[in-house]
Amino acid sequence: MRSIYPLSDAGLELLKPFIAKKHISKGDFILRKDETCRHIYFVNKGFARIFYFKNGKEITEWFTAEKNFCFSITSYFEEKPSHLIIECLEDSEVIYLSKEGLDKLCKTQIEISNFFSKMISGALILSQKRMDSIQFETARQRYEQLIKNQPYILQKVPLQYVASFLGITSETLSRIRTQI
Amino acid sequence: MRSIYPLSDAGLELLKPFIAKKHISKGDFILRKDETCRHIYFVNKGFARIFYFKNGKEITEWFTAEKNFCFSITSYFEEKPSHLIIECLEDSEVIYLSKEGLDKLCKTQIEISNFFSKMISGALILSQKRMDSIQFETARQRYEQLIKNQPYILQKVPLQYVASFLGITSETLSRIRTQI
DNA sequence: TTCAGCAATTGACAATTGTCAAAAAATACG
DNA sequence: CGTATTTTTTGACAATTGTCAATTGCTGAA
Question: Which residues of A fall within a CB distance of 8 Å from B163?
Fold first, then answer.
């Protein structure tokens, strides 16, 4: 976990009471629909995808690779039921860091507060970059970027997940692929 | 400034050395192209827009209304020259909060660190909502949402700014407007 | 007040992507 | 294996939005 954002031994000790390690089997959920997201999830081992239903169809919003974290931003901060679902696509080991504990620690422990800020800023930068990409690149450009930056995704997940992640239909993705 | 995120008197005193109030005339810039964004900008009075050039055309990314803050996310966090430009569309009073000062305070002052987290999480939630809107709503739906949620924008800025903010051309916006 | 310059609209057409249906390919499982 | 199921591809067509060019409308400075 510390590989992502630096944290002293003392800081880690502070977090420990609020951390739980769980094994999630392939196909099982880290976060279910309408469950409120009360943790930040570090995918220590394995692979997850974040998706939701739109007009009866699954839309993949994000993938979380090993050694990355995920959570439902709006559910977590607004403490409302999540429309996002987080599913493990492989047998995974996930570290749950509780919001309750984190909030409590942030009130008194400056190292934890800064650790949290770092995580959030990282998420903000990612969110911003994804927004730029969706708004100003064509479907083909986004697919090419994906091949370049996260080729492992294409090896791990069905193309329909990739398609909705890119914001296009399976059919369009298929046509893009034949033309490259 | 405190109207947005709570801050004690002591907290405000801590920030004061790193705050500067500036008057920016209509048409002048808060952040210029290729300048590194070293502040968070609170628009205390006035109105600003954030835009950049794409293929020689201005693309409006965001508007900042009175009592809101703005900054270039990637330039600020990655300390790189900004491709975003922040321009005042009215005579404005802007409070500059320096990153250097904020970073320094965050190391030792937990209230400031939490204040900063709150700002960033707010920005993250906004960014997320905008992403959803761009990816899954049609141009017309986004325009209708804009009328509903931020009607003042339509009164303040030329339609071409609104169009690029919605991610469409002026022509398309014009056609949407005639059909409502 | 007038006119220059910018902003907004309109028309014709093109490009991109979506939708629906069907076929082909890949995969899972008894 | 072989079959059932799911995934991917393909085709025909429609919808949305963009591009380019021309026109109209608006605004501000001389």
Answer: none
